[in-house]
What does this fold into?
Amino acid sequence: MTIPRLLVVDDDPEMRSMLTQFLRQNGFIALLAATKADILKHITSERVDLILLDVMLGDENGTDICQSLRQEHDVPIIFISALSADHHRMRGYEVGADDYVAKPFNPNLLLARVKAVLQRARRTASLTYRRRTQRFAFDGWVYDGKQDEIRAPGGYQVALSQRETGLLKVFLANPHIPLTREEIARALDVTGESDGSEATGRAIDVLVGRLRTKIEQDPKAPQLIRTERGVGYVFSSDVEVRDI
It folds into this structure.
């Protein structure tokens, strides 16, 4: 249920704008960066699932940045570069890149490569931690991923529908991140409800309203699932993830 968070690193504002718009239209959260300092700020303060890294960043070099990042971080990295010779590609793989896409590129091809790298990363994590289940704690509530049940601060179990549980998982995976109704619909993987239509927005509003009646102390003045004006919704509680 986690919405992938991609960091677009390019010193060309036009390219950054084009890429971020395309990625957001295809269900990703796109973050922006132009320098190594920007990258470090993002990956040390928030979750980043994949980095799209330009090789030539003004006075900085993307391959050097990738090599440096690999000393402490295992976030997947895809190089995007106008340098397409074989030795440039080989250098990219040598410093730890997961893929290398040459400019100019077909956006749909890039999308396929992004999905493939993310899938490999998930598969590796799944194989490594396949026996681990998690418990999510927030504002006195606890959601047990193994039992697929949620308990209120008083310890009693609250019944959620399958769709309400899915929505809760989306929020728990993306705390403090404003999510549009379309992003929520895509994360729920609901066919026909992620087309950006008014009907989609209403369906998500209804679902959010139902979940609020289950977990909010006062659904008419929600403190956990807040409405973000002009955007959608944000889960405003810290979430503690515990291995069980």
